[in-house]
Amino acid sequence: MSLDIASIRAQFPILDQEINGKPLVYLDNGASSQKPQRVIDAISHYYENDHSNVHRGAHTLSQRATNAFEAVRKQVQQFINAEHEHEIIYTRGTTEAINLVASSFGKVFIEEGDEVLISTMEHHSNIVPWQMMCDEWGAVLKVIPITESGEIIMDEFDTLLSGRTAMVAINHVSNALGTINPLREIIDKAHKVGAAVLIDGAQSVPHMKVDVQDLDADFYCFSAHKMYGPTGIGILYGKEQWLNDMPPYHGGGEMIDKVSFEKTTYNSLPFKFEAGTPNIADTIALGEAIRFMDEVGVENIGAWEHELVEYATEKLLEIEGLRIIGTAKNKASVISFLVGNIHPFDMGTILDQLGIAVRTGHHCTMPLMEWYGIPGTVRASFAVYNTKEEVDVLVAGVNRAAMMLG
């Protein structure tokens, strides 16, 4: 790789610390990645220099805040290659984006007996909103099975698809397994039966180049905090025709055209779905996160992380009794594992004492863990600032914990 990882790491101040007397090894990027100084500075700069509400003032501060806020919408459009800038909706994150679609889409396009397809490997955020929608409108939720390796069984997907399928909601990359799903095939087949497709892209956008037009996705959702940006801001991309036909999700200021006590008319896209004062500072900081990723190169990020995953997989499998949960041929930046009968929480606790941050538990995929018949896993997830030396520290830590707990 041609990346200067040391230079990249130097941009992340949080990495330069010790935890329990050991250098921090941060391998919990699937939950939330760390932030480069430029993202942190963008938040401070906004509050120190430009803070004002957007879209609502003729004065200079409001104009500056509005210009910076809307410039990010254009950045996101270009980053994921959306056709129109107004197809980019600001949300609080992936979870709110999925809830928005489930609620608004359901009100118009779901009838009793319609079917929604999700996969066994979905995050709770891509399960519960559809359950709620199905309960409200009398629709049926169906689950696409997976293989032991964590890959969708496409023959089963073909069987479940029918003229009653109104929505297919699926992740691009599994947060628990790292599986990269075959989206083009899934989307093409869904469209042939007239179904819309929503993609949970929370775990894909940080690691690979996403082109929503090439995928032909109807909706694509992701969060800033997993892609080196701040918490509390996410993106819903939706095709213009769907968004135009869907009713607003929240009511209030900004999303209106004209309000009277008798009737309210709604604003045009994207503002129809952005009620109230938005998260201005963190939206502006998302712009800096995108600039960081563009400057490093999204393809370079993905390639380096793939190298780390390959290296870590090889080294971890040398540990006696260790098994990896999720062995799909096409994987992104996640390794979930168990060692013998050691509980994931116990393993994670010892690793923390060694300065190693991993995620333990069910990873908001309880149905998936139940399918595997396990309480959860230890999950190591990688970002561009991680190193092979950190992988070696992880492997040594797992070995030590296994000896202590075995």
CATH superfamily of the largest domain: Type I PLP-dependent aspartate aminotransferase-like (Major domain)
User: In CATH's first tier, which class of the largest domain applies?
Assistant: Alpha Beta
What CATH architecture of the largest domain would you give?
3-Layer(aba) Sandwich
- Quick one: overall form? globular
Q: What is the average per-residue confidence, as pLDDT, rounded to a whole number?
A: 97
The helical percent reads: 40-55%
Q: Report the end-to-end length measured between terminal Cα atoms.
A: 38 Å
Q: What keyword list fits this structure?
A:
406 residues, alpha/beta, seven-stranded mixed beta sheet, Aspartate Aminotransferase, domain 1
Give a concise summary:
With 406 residues, the protein is an alpha/beta fold.
Task: Write a structural description.
The protein is an alpha/beta fold and 406 residues long. It folds into 2 domains: 5-29 and 298-405, Alpha-Beta Complex (Aspartate Aminotransferase, domain 1); 40-294, 3-Layer(aba) Sandwich (Aspartate Aminotransferase, domain 2), CATH 3.40.640. 40% of the residues lie in helices and 17% in strands. It has helices at 5-9, 37-50, 60-80, 94-109, 128-137, 154-160, 183-192, 212-215, 240-245, 280-296, 298-316, 344-353, 366-372, 388-405, and strands at residues 18-19, 22-23, 25-26, 88-91, 115-119, 140-144, 165-171, 196-200, 219-223, 234-238, 256-259, 264-266, 322-324, 334-339, 356-357, 359-361, 377-381. It has a 7-stranded mixed sheet, sandwiched between helices. Helix 2 runs antiparallel to helix 10 (280-296), helix 3 (60-80) packs across helix 10 (280-296) and helix 11 (298-316) packs parallel to helix 14. The radius of gyration is 22 Å and the shape is globular.
